[in-house]
Amino acid sequence: MADRLRTHPVTITAVGRPTHIIQSEIMPSSDPYDLAHLIEMTADGDRDAFSDLYDRVAPAVIGIARRTILDWALAEEIAHDALVEVWQKADRYSPERGSVMAWIGTITRRRAIDVIRSIEARRRR
Asked: Residues 120, 99: one domain?
């Protein structure tokens, strides 16, 4: 299971002035709410698990869509649609084929490419 990064604010003093930074530490993979566990619970219809999964991966999913589609609003729409598909197809995720994030990223990229193709097809008409 993948480790999870936890951050917390820390104040240090540099050159006589306090400076606020974010210190990071790796949480152990025994975290019961890692992505694999959340997708498994989502596949069983657990809405709270999906909500937690959504909150944890949405920024990365929007980033994936944004790298493909330059329009911010459209990228957010693609990310939302991709995560709805994750909810609908969570039972199809297979850990033997890759990580949860890779699976979600593939869904997101596929949706973004479909949108690009649709836009291009409309322009050709």
From this structure: yes
18 and 40 share a domain? no
Place of tokens 């033997």: 96
DSSP track, 46-114: -HHHHHHHHHHHHHHHHHHHHHH---HHHHHHHHHHHHHHHHHHGGG--GGG--HHHHHHHHHHHHHHH
Mention every residue, 6+ apart, whose C-beta is less than 8 A from residue 118: none
Into how many domains does the chain fold? 2
pLDDT digit string (tens) for 29-53? 435 459 999 999 999 999 999 999 9
Q: Which helix (H) or strand (E) holds 42?
A: helix 35-43
One domain, residues 115 and 96: yes
